[in-house]
Each structure stands twice: as structure tokens, then as C-alpha cells.
Amino acid sequence: MRRTAALAVFALVFVACSSNSVATTLPATTVPPNTSSTTAATSTTSLTTTSLPATTVTTTTVTTTTVTTTTVTTPSPGAVHVPFTSTLSLDIYGSGGPTVVLFHGGGWVTGSPADIAPLAEAIAQRSAVVFNAPYRLTFEGGGFPMTFEDAACAVRFAAAHTAEYGGDPDRLIVVGYSAGAQIAAVVALAGDTFDGDCLVEMNDTLPTRLVGLAGPYNTDALGPLLEPFFGTDPAVDPEPWRLGNPLTYLGRNPDLVVRLIHGDQDQIVPLVFSQYFEQQLSDHGYDVTLTVVPGADHGDIADPAAYGGLAVDAAVG
């Protein structure tokens, strides 16, 4: 029953945006002249510098997608399965090199680390210790603030234990895909703000790099579609919405390096989300670039068999 409800809300979140009754509005976006964006050619992985045009969006249109969810209770092949909260365990790949914490997508209501295990393996093969972490989903004990507490705990746990696998705790990289990119952006910018069930106590852990893959960063633009996640109507109680939006934390963790990647054919999370986030980060002085991949759809960005290699390069290249 909960799985059915989760899938229904996931479809609602990304499909209802195309309805005339719900407008997804983002402020007009103009890429600052001192901000560079890169475009990956569809036939090669070489990148050329380009500039994004001014973008004004009043209504975001997306298409219907079919989502299949699978519950995974065993670790992925080649991974070490380790608890990091009293109820959740993550998969650890690789040895030596920087520390990478990876968050899957799924519209905040579905998905698991198994969905992006190929990306975790690809990053680990480049000499990194990868912590592929779950988080509680909207209808499975998650939502605000629990989902962010789990994500913050995973980052804290990785920093505390990466040396056991030869990892470098001072090179702490957070990578998120789709909804996981939004979650990753919050914890990367906010630092160790979200407390909760965790096997490592809160400390001053700060990620050094954020890699966002096709993320819907400004959750205000989704409006009532995320009421199940935040548990409130933003007009009645805006505080959870404010604290769960990465834009709230702009100015914190000022040394954070941010690399955003998005396909220009993404029909699930439109490119304007990354364009607007890049602009806001640049306006606040962050080292940020956006790589726009021509011809790439939503799933291509995290798939090592498609353009996921760009994510690997952004994380550890």
C-alpha cells in the first residue's frame, strides 16, 4: 500500500507540472558574464566553453514517466554493507583517494542505492572511497527533516570512517542525482546542521565539493507538489520549506566547489533548475560550473554507459 502511494506521489510531482492548474515558476535567469558553463558534445566527451542564454521560465512542462522501484536488502556485489544509523546501512566501495558520498534519486518517494550502484562502482574505480547511502523516503518514515538528517549522517559517517578504507577525510565530495542532488545540495551547503539518529555525533564536517546531477534544487518551484514531503502547506507553515531548500544556505560553506551536470533533453527535471541554481551560487561567490549535455535525457546523466563519465570526472577527475 505504501509503495503504491509513493509511486502515485512521484508521478504527481513530475507530471502535474504540465497541468494548467499548477504552474511551476522560477525567477528569470541570466547567467552572469563571469560564470562559465561547459557543453559536452553528444558524440564525444570533450567539453567546449559556451555561455547559456538568458532564460525566463514561468511554467515548466514535463512528460509522464514510468517508475519501477525495487527493495534491496543485500549489499551490491563488491561493496561492504555497513550501518550508519540504527535502521539504515550504506554500501562502501573502493579504497584510497578522496571520500565520495552518493545519494540516489527517486522523487523523494522511491529509489535505493542499488539504482546508482554502477555510478558508485565507476567512481570507486578511479581511486576513491564511495559511500552509497540510502535515506528515509517520504512515505517510509522520511520527509522533512528526517531525510536530511539521514543524508547529513551519511556525510558525517563517511568523514569519520573513510580512513579505515584508505580514504582522505579532507577531500569530502557529495554527489547526488535527481532528488538526491537536491538533498546533497542542502547538506553540502548547510554543513552539519541536521541532527538525528546517527552512529556518529555531530561535528564540524564540511564537504569540499558538490556534484549535482540533474537536480530540482529550488523546491519552492514545485509548490504544493511537495507537501507530502514537507508535511505542510507552504502558505500555512513555510519554515520546513525554507530549511529544506538549498538556496536558504547560500553563503555558508563558502569554499565549497560546485559542479552541476544536466542534459538539455531532460523531460523529468528541466534544465532551468540547474541554470537558476548556478546563477544563485555564482552571485554568492562560489566556484561553480554547469555542464549542459546536448541530447542527454534525465537518466543519461547518472549512467556510466551514457554520460555518467562526466559525473565521475567532476567528482574525482
What portion of residues is helical? 25-40%
Strand content: 15-25%
Question: What structural class results from the helix and strand content?
Answer: alpha/beta
What is the radius of gyration computed over CA atoms, rounded to a whole number of angstroms? 18 Å
Uncertain regions spanning at least 5 consecutive residues: 1-25, 27-74
What is the H/E string? HEEEEEHEHEHEHHEHEH
Count of beta strands: 10
Mean pLDDT: 82
Please count the helical segments. 8
Report the principal-axis shape: globular
* Assembly type: single chain
Largest sheet: 10 strands, mixed
Strand ordering within the main sheet:
2-1-10-9-8-7-5-6-4-3
What distance separates the N and C termini?
43 Å
Overview of the structural elements:
The chain is α/β, with parallel strands linked by helices and 317 residues long. 25% of the residues lie in helices and 19% in strands. The chain is built from 8 helices and 10 strands. It has helices at residues 2-15, 117-124, 146-161, 179-190, 227-230, 239-243, 272-283, 308-316, and strands spanning 37-40, 47-50, 80-83, 89-93, 97-103, 129-133, 167-177, 209-213, 257-263, 287-293. It has a 10-stranded mixed sheet, with helices on both faces. Helix 2 links the parallel strand 5 (97-103) and strand 6. Helix 3 packs across helix 4 (179-190). The longest helix is centred in the middle third of the chain and has 16 residues, at 146-161. The termini are far apart. Residues 1-25 and 27-74 have low confidence and may be disordered.
